[in-house]
Write a structure and sequence with these properties.
With 426 residues, the chain is of the alpha/beta class. The chain folds into 2 domains: 93-177, Pdz3 Domain; 183-318 and 325-425, 2-enoyl-CoA Hydratase, Chain A, domain 1 (Alpha-Beta Complex). The protein is 27% helix and 26% strand. It contains 10 helices and 23 strands. Helix 6 runs parallel beside helix 7.
């Protein structure tokens, strides 16, 4: 779990690319804005009250240009670009929150499971007022991330304002290495597998298939509960291969850029280890990007029953362009569409059964949760070890604890067990 400096919201969808070379002739009128930019640059260098290098000015100009496009496009300097690469391979450290800057306020989009931030009680919608005593009012997202990140074992103090709280609260959090595992599994009942995907990084599909292999070595899979709640997304390729694990054919997702000819389809293929058992999928407002691709594909193919809340609604694709000097550009280049041809950008995926979010900690009320979705972001793109006997099955303490605290999960378990009968009635 980590802070992702490269994200303007909870989650990103990445495609790696090579920086393009200019190929079109530029007419004379296009030089006018460049002339104006050069004049302003000269004026700042000559008369600004502080000494500032041309490189700093140009870097800041590039950052501003990209940040004004939408919440997900960004200029990444060498340090930021390196950290972004570490994040997509799952090798990073921090306190484990996804954050966004909105209207000058630093907002927690989602605390990532099992990280210091999650254990410290940070919640989606919390406003971070101060970092180590310094106000966050109007600082950039990159500045905030730089202040919160640090070496493992060091402490950061955040001043947090929970929704409906009258007084801010200071929270001391010790930074730590973020767990690399993106898939967690558990047996909820005899033959019912629980699969939790926390993010989509380079190893997600491999971890998922290893978890399934382990379960199959012990029992036949009679049903699956797939948990995508608070999953901020990640790699497009991993979303496709995860969805393919539960689909034997058909379109999973397609992406469409500015030109019609740019459309690219991603299809499922039949595999010997495909999971065909009945399944229920859990989503909420923190399910974004790659997790929405999976949920959307499974829903459109009538492969799963979706339970929870409308998802975040990030339906855009960011392409990473490495630059020659080691920096990079993250640019929104396309929207993605579910198999039915629907863009979920700023709309999200609607569940089949709406179920209120049930906090994992006791005494937390859903009414106190401030929900941030893609549509709320400025410049968002518009839509285009003990055991308990359970019949013949031995339920682990971990599974028992999960079920006792999570009403939504209990509902999913009951429904996935009944799905075969429901289909017979239909």
């Amino acid at each position: 779990m980590r802070i992702t400096m490269w994200m303007a919201t909870i989650l990103c969808l990445f495609i790696l690319a090579v920086a393009p070379e200019p190929t079109r002739a530029v007419d004379n009128s296009q030089f006018q804005p460049l002339r104006k930019f050069s004049q302003i640059l000269d004026l700042v260098e000559s008369y600004y009250v502080k000494d500032i290098s041309r490189k700093e000015l140009i870097d800041d100009a590039m950052k501003g240009m990209l940040e004004q496009l939408d919440p997900h496009s960004a200029y990444l300097d060498k340090k930021d670009f390196k950290e972004m690469q570490e994040i997509t391979t799952g090798e990073f450290s921090g306190i484990g929150i996804e954050i966004s800057m909105e209207h000058g306020k630093l907002i927690v989009v989602s605390p990532i499971e099992d990280t210091p931030a999650y254990k410290a009680g940070l919640l989606a919608g919390d406003i971070i007022i101060e970092i180590n005593g310094k106000t966050t009012q109007n600082i950039s997202l990159q500045e905030a991330v730089g202040m919160i990140r640090g070496k493992r074992g060091t402490k950061v103090t955040l001043t947090i304002l929970h929704k409906d709280s009258r007084k801010p609260e200071k929270v001391d959090i010790v930074r730590d290495s973020i767990p690399l595992v993106s898939v967690k599994s558990e047996m909820l009942d005899n033959g019912i597998a629980f699969l939790r995907i926390t993010r989509f990084n380079d190893n997600t599909t491999k971890e998922l298939r290893e978890a399934l292999k382990k379960i199959r070595s012990k029992t036949k899979i009679k049903g699956v509960v797939l948990d995508l709640r608070n999953n901020p997304g990640g790699l497009l390729t991993q979303a496709v291969s995860v969805a393919d694990t539960f689909l034997s054919d058909g379109l999973i997702v397609y992406i469409q850029g500015r030109e019609k000819s740019s459309r690219k389809d991603f299809n499922a293929a039949s595999q010997s280890n495909d999971v065909t058992a009945p399944m229920v999928t859990l989503i909420n407002a923190g399910s974004a990007s790659a997790s929405e691709i999976v949920a959307g594909a499974l829903k459109d193919h009538n492969r799963t029953l979706l339970i929870g809340e409308r998802s975040f609604g990030k339906g855009s694709v960011q392409t990473i362009f490495p630059m020659p000097d080691g920096a990079g550009i993250k640019l929104t280049t396309a929207r993605y569409y579910t198999p039915s041809g629907r863009s979920i950008q700023a709309e999200g995926i609607d569940p089949d059964i709406v179920y209120p979010f049930i906090p994992q900690k006791e005494d937390e009320e859903d009414s106190n949760r401030f929900i941030v979705r893609e549509q709320d972001l400025s410049r968002h793109l518009i839509n285009g070890n003990g055991t308990v006997q359970h019949g013949q099955f031995t339920l682990s303490d971990r599974a028992k604890k999960m079920l006792s605290r999570d009403n939504q999960l209990r509902l999913a378990l009951q429904l996935v067990k009944q799905l075969p009968r429901i289909k017979q009635i239909d």
